[in-house]
Amino acid sequence: xxxxxxxxxxxxxxxxxxxxxxxxxxxxxxxxxxxxxxxxxxxxxxxxxxxxxxxxxxxxxxxxxxxxxxxxxxxxxxxxxxxxxxxxxxxxxxxxxxxxxxxxxxxxxxxxxxxxxxxxxxxxxxxxxxxxxxxxxxxxxxxxxxxxxxxxxxxxxxxxxxxxxxxxxxxxxxxxxxxxxxxxxxxxxxxxxxxxxxxxxxxxxxxxxxxxxxxxxxxxxxxxxxxxxxxxxxxxxxxxxxxxxxxxxxxxxxxxxxxxxxxxxxxxxxxxxxxxxxxxxxxxxxxxxxxxxxxxxxxxxxxxxxxxxxxxxxxxxxxxxxxxxxxxxxxxxxxxxxxxxxxxxxxxxxxxxxxxxxxxxxxxxxxxxxxxxxxxxxxxxxxxxxxxxxxxxxxxxxxxxxxxxxxxxxxxxxxxxxxxxxxxxxxxxxxxxxxxxxxxxxxxxxxxxxxxxxxxxxxxxxxxxxxxxxxxxxxxxxxxxxxxxxxxxxxxxxxxxxxxxxxxxxxxxxxxxxxxxxxxxxxxxxxxxxxxxxxxxxxxxxxxxxxxxxxxxxxxxxxxxxxxxxxxxxxxxxxxxxxxxxxxxxxxxxxxxxxxxxxxxxxxxxxxxxxxxxxxxxxxxxxxxxxxxxxxxxxxxxxxxxxxxxxxxxxxxxxxxxxxxxxxxxxxxxxxxxxxxxxxxxxxxxxxxxxxxxxxxxxxxxxxxxxxxxxxxxxxx
Length: 717
Description:
4 domains; 23 strands; Alpha-D-Glucose-1,6-Bisphosphate, Chain A, domain 4; Helicase, Ruva Protein, domain 3; CATH 3.40.525.10; immunity; 32% helix; five-stranded mixed beta sheet; alpha+beta; CRAL/TRIO_N_dom; 20 helices; innate immunity
């Protein structure tokens, strides 16, 4: 299989005039002590123009490649020969270098092009650029080995290039040479030359003789390389990345990494006429795919499309987060960590994720998280300027104090997973470190659910502290300065992050309202609503194939009081008849009402109760799970809760009467969501949910079967 590797360098700037750089460059030949593999070079061809402005020299270079002896033996060579053709134009002040391999030229094709030109903004500085391609057609079955050797040799040479020039510049300086005069036309030539030549300094705009001479020489085909490549450089230097800029703003990249960045950026400039992302952001996508340029291009393009669709570029300027978020979202930016990374503090344990999802819907929550990420990008850029070194990611401190079962509410976790997914796809490599503090007992359950969605690279950056461990050695002080540790973690710094707290139920919106939201970044609400009447419960069928699955439920009693039951049956219930809504269908357009349990079925014979009934009052939220013991059919049932008469007098109590009057037409309303999880997904978590004493460290070991307790239903009021 043919592999073509390409390389494109950034622009390297030497703050010395072109002529001095040429004097240094010439000293590399015929051999150079700084390049041990460069054993010898012979001049094969040479041409000088009469006025000495043009000098073309072709050399055959002998290289001793650092390759395994076995490979050299198989290839049958000790040395590799390259042909290098240098075209110097002293008038234009350019040097073009073309090189290609002579050895194995039918198996491997290596082409290299370098040029030294005058800096477009300063004529006393010199720019250097190089590009190359490597195409391995075949090499005795050792193609990939040869590719590795070639890449290794090549990148080490690139690194050396600058050292070599600087070494010879120093040598020249020690010899007292710090200035080399520019080329001037010889006197004899001046008389013959046209008059426009002498007028040149007066009106530099007239560039005629230049191109005329150039064309004249082109006929000799000596300048075929040097005519075009230098032009774009002079025209738009801003389109190119220079090596110093990369080091200062983007970090220490290997030559191949620089090349990937330059090539991907070039491709974007050619194909995306709109706004192209900042260099540091392009680099994040490359890092996320280990500098595989095709994979990085794919995810970057998807992200650019996504940004356009959702107007993400304008989110910071145009979108105002709803008041609920400003009041109840317990997160915010807080100074920076010891590495200069912006620091984001999230008091997840204090935050009512369920309330926020119910009051806002997933969309607004996602938008808010996106605006936080956009702000993060902006802060990285700012800190890069302030600290004088590249900062491309932020640190996130998550305090889990207060985390409870409410945070494990499945739709809340689902919303969290979706948010993580969108952030992972569009803000790769932005999380420098994640410090998770005061992790409680239920945390591992959350972690089991969340971790599969998190990229491996990202996961390596997580540090998790249980209880007060963060105060000990290896804790928070290693990463964050003492002065800015927030007050709620026992520090002295007032932290502006909102306290969080429960979102009032009055702010919740109904499923219908959430469904009618204009902006839809993702799915419809995952809740279904149902109506429950006296004598007409609502039932949901779940078929279980694998004996030990986990049925999870989560519902809110919107109106009235109900009893929740879960039954098991070996026989399949008959599908409900079309008219099962009966007389009630008109009163409940919003919610469905289905009965599955046949009137003739007997409890204990046809079906059995697998959990004790749970009475749920209006306004309550219930989450729970049941580990199934047998395959077959499970039925979840929400039943109208009729008021018990007063035990002593058998007469209804006053408040019961009042309560029953409030329930108009004896109709209750539930919003519910159910899901079945395979036992293998839940096994690690079941024990930690149920045994109250399981310590944080034993969790990984605790995967025992969960027969001792079969359900955990809990109500958060």
